[in-house]
UniProtKB/TrEMBL annotation:
<comment type="pathway">
    <text>Carbohydrate biosynthesis; gluconeogenesis.</text>
</comment>
<dbReference type="GO" id="GO:0005829">
    <property type="term" value="C:cytosol"/>
</dbReference>
<keyword id="KW-0963">Cytoplasm</keyword>
<dbReference type="Pfam" id="PF00121">
    <property type="entry name" value="TIM"/>
</dbReference>
<dbReference type="InterPro" id="IPR013785">
    <property type="entry name" value="Aldolase_TIM"/>
</dbReference>
<dbReference type="InterPro" id="IPR000652">
    <property type="entry name" value="Triosephosphate_isomerase"/>
</dbReference>
<dbReference type="InterPro" id="IPR035990">
    <property type="entry name" value="TIM_sf"/>
</dbReference>
<keyword id="KW-0413">Isomerase</keyword>
<dbReference type="GO" id="GO:0004807">
    <property type="term" value="F:triose-phosphate isomerase activity"/>
</dbReference>
<dbReference type="GO" id="GO:0006094">
    <property type="term" value="P:gluconeogenesis"/>
</dbReference>
<protein>
    <recommendedName>
        <fullName>Triosephosphate isomerase</fullName>
        <ecNumber>5.3.1.1</ecNumber>
    </recommendedName>
</protein>
<dbReference type="GO" id="GO:0019563">
    <property type="term" value="P:glycerol catabolic process"/>
</dbReference>
<dbReference type="GO" id="GO:0006096">
    <property type="term" value="P:glycolytic process"/>
</dbReference>
<comment type="similarity">
    <text>Belongs to the triosephosphate isomerase family.</text>
</comment>
<dbReference type="GO" id="GO:0046166">
    <property type="term" value="P:glyceraldehyde-3-phosphate biosynthetic process"/>
</dbReference>
<keyword id="KW-0312">Gluconeogenesis</keyword>
<comment type="pathway">
    <text>Carbohydrate degradation; glycolysis; D-glyceraldehyde 3-phosphate from glycerone phosphate: step 1/1.</text>
</comment>
Amino acid sequence: MNAALWIGTSFKMNKTRAQAVAYAARLREAVGAGIPGVQPFVLPSATALAEVTAALGPERTVLTGVQNAHWASAGAWTGELSVPQAADAGAAIVEIGHSERRAHFAETDATVRLKVEAVLRHGLTPLVCCGESAEDFARGRSVDRVLEQVAAAFDGIGGTGRALVAYEPVWAIGEHGRAPRPEEIAPVHRALAEEWGDRTAGVLYGGSVTPANAPELLMVPGVGGLFAGRSAWRVEGYLALLEAGRAHLAPAG
């Protein structure tokens, strides 16, 4: 789908299978045949992926995916999930390089690139996360740091048109993150749009996204969608974000 806006959520390490399926069933009921111009997507825990995908229905109005995958197609990688396994369970999207993975699980620019190549090779959509630390933000290095991360992710890889990029400043994400002002993220999104807007399927913003601030975030030039966490863990919150996307695309007047 050539969506004008991508709006998604990651459940992170939350929800049992039953809870995730109940969420998916309610979402399918509410979204129906879809929202013109908006591509919804949900990244549940891997344990619930197949059941959530089935509950959302064969129409694939709402895409599903995983929050991480290994770069190898198979092998002796204890505890890991391959891209073919994710696809077999229904995944269309693979999130790569989230700051929590980088900080706590030794994810690097090099392994991000390996994973991007693997996801594209197997025909899925990589969702590449990037974002600067609070220190880089304070030093005025946001644009440089983010462009470095994205360039490293796609280094030497052709055919990035299926890929998504999610700009998630580290200082804005998580329970203690600070919601950004539009002018704080605008320079990064402008730079990403100029450098990668025509070479990817979309550049999203993520980090303290809520239904309340979604309209102003979507107004930032270069923002091609939203990637939310805790505000969308209740289906009502996610539906409110989808409604913000619909309203953003609605003709004025």
